[in-house]
Amino acid sequence: MVKMDKADTRMKNRPYRSLEGSLKYVATGTRPDIAYAVCQLSRHLEFLHKEHRNAAIRVLRYLKTTQSKGICFEEVLGNLQLSAYTDADWASNKWNRRSISEVFVMINGAPVIFKSNMQQSVALSTAEAEYMTLSLCVQEVLWTRSLLKEMQVQINYAVTIHEDNQTAIAIAKNDNYQIRAKHIDIRYYFVREQVKDKIIDLQYTETKSQLAVF
């Protein structure tokens, strides 16, 4: 979608904001397959044009024709398995060159957290964008572990996080790696600490097998 610097006055009374909010609710609750599209739609709340509204309607039509899709939680046999996938779309925003973070947290193969968010700062490399996303993913994993603990479910193993960037994995495991940018440096120590404490286990997964690609 093309970004505009002025709103189309003809769209003033069109319910785009409420439509985008409704789609976001669906994406957050049961349809991770539209998360990326909704993320893109949310960028045009201020300068709305007809093509943005048409794009939102296309998402609605897609939902209508795929009503049978959703998240299926099967019966748990044995121990509960918590895992996660993380990926970044580096510098994908043509107007500010910010990257998109994509995170999937799963319990027994079913997604319980799925996010597609624009990063708050510009990443200077693919590895940097991936590492910023990895930090977000680790935070979501820790939150899920804490929630499960309150439900009397203990996770006594390192949670596997699937990452398709080997440089980002190497950074997390290298005590001697130095990062000058403070906003990245803080994330570096945070992730490395979780790896060192065996809270998480980073596993390389090829992009074609990466579930966090929306």
From TrEMBL:
Protein name listed in UniProt: Polyprotein
